[in-house]
Amino acid sequence: MGDRRSLPVPDGLEGERLDAALARLFGFSRTRAAELITSGEVLLDGSVPAKSDRVHAGAWLDVTIPPPPAAPMPVAEPAPGMTIIYEDDDIVVVSKPIGVAAHPTVGWTGPTVLGGLLATGHRVATSGAAERQGIVHRLDANTTGAMVVAKSEHAYSRLKRAFKERTVDKRYHALVQGHMDPLRGTIDAPIDRHPSGDGRFAVVAGGKESVTHYDTVEAFRAASLLDIKLETGRTHQIRVHLSALRHPCVGDFLYGADPTLAARLGVARQWLHAASLAFEHPATGEWMSFTSDYPADLAHALEIVNAES
Question: What UniProt keywords are attached to this protein's entry (predicted)?
C-alpha cells in the first residue's frame, strides 16, 4: 500500500508540465515523476493525465507514492578476486576488487563483499539492516581497495562510531586529469544527489558537509597522482569533488572524464583506489593500519602515463 497525497497545485507552478511540477513538489526526479504518471498513480482533477499536460494553480492532485522496493538479502556467493588482508575474531579487512559492491542494493545483481565473505564461511555481525550486516563503510562497486567488515557486534558498534566521529584514517590514491592548483589543498563543498535524479551526486548548496584533503604525489604530462584523505564519507565524494574542480578521476565517465585519455591508458572505470585504512582495533584499542596494492588495470595505466611523461 502506497503513501497517498492529495493537494492543490500551488500558484508558483502555474503552467508547468505535470512531470516537472511533481518533481518540484515531492523532490522526485523527472524520470520518477513520469513513471508514476504512466503507471496511473497520479490523478489531476480526478482524471488520468499525461506527463506533458500543463497544470493550473488550484487544480487538485492525487498522488499515490508506492513504497520503495526492499533491498535484497545477502546471498552467499563468491566475490571473484577479493582477498583477505587481515582477520581476527572481531574484524575482517578485505581488498575489494572491481565489479564487487559492498552489500546488496536494489538494482545490483553482481557479487558483493558480504556475499563473498558468507560464501567462504566467514561470520559477520548481525547488527544493522539485514541486507548490510557487518558493513560499517562502503566503497563504490568499481572503486577498489581496503575495506573493513565487522564480525562481532561489539566491533560493529565501535567501528560505526569511529567512522561517524572521523577517527578512522582513510587514504585513497586517485589518478586525475591535468594538474591540481594548488598542488595540495582541501575541498570543502556540500554534496547531495544531482538534481537530474540520474544517480549522480553533485556539489549542491544545502547538501551534506563534505571535506576532502588532497596532496599531489606525482605530476605527469597528462595527469596527476593524488594522495587523498577523506574527512567525511559521502557517496561518490572524491569523484564529485575532483570533478567539480575540473580534474575528474581518469576513466570516470559518470563525472566527465575524457574517454580518449582513458582509452589510451586502458582504463574502463574510475582510477580510484582505497590504498590504506587505519583505526583503533575495536577490542584491543591498538592502532592498526592496512594497505592494499593497486590492481592490474590501475597499475598498468600508471606505467603508461609515467612512460609518456
Answer: Isomerase, RNA-binding
Rounded-to-integer distance, Cα 303 and Cα 309, Å: 10
Residue 93 has pLDDT above 70, yes or no: yes
Q: What is the pLDDT of residues 114-150, one digit of tens each?
A: 999 999 999 899 877 776 889 999 999 999 999 999 9
Cα three-residue angle 226-231-235, rounded to 5 degrees: 85
pTM above 0.70, yes or no: yes
Q: Any residues with CB less than 8 A from the CB of 34 and at least 6 apart, and which?
A: 19, 51
Whether 89 is catalytic is: no
Q: Which of 15-19, 161-165, 195-199, 303-307 has the lowest mean pLDDT?
A: 195-199
φ/ψ of 303, rounded to 5, equals -60, -45
Three-class SS of 173-220? EEEEECCCCCCEEEEECCEEECCCCCCCEEECCCCECCEEEEEEEEEC
Four-residue CA torsion sign, 276, 162, 152, 144: negative
The whole-angstrom separation of Cα 210 and Cα 231 is 8
- Domains of the chain, start order: 3-65 (3.10.290.10), 68-165 (3.30.2350.10), 166-309 (3.30.2350.10)
Where helices occur in the chain by DSSP H, the ranges are: 18-26, 30-38, 113-119, 153-164, 237-244, 259-265, 296-308
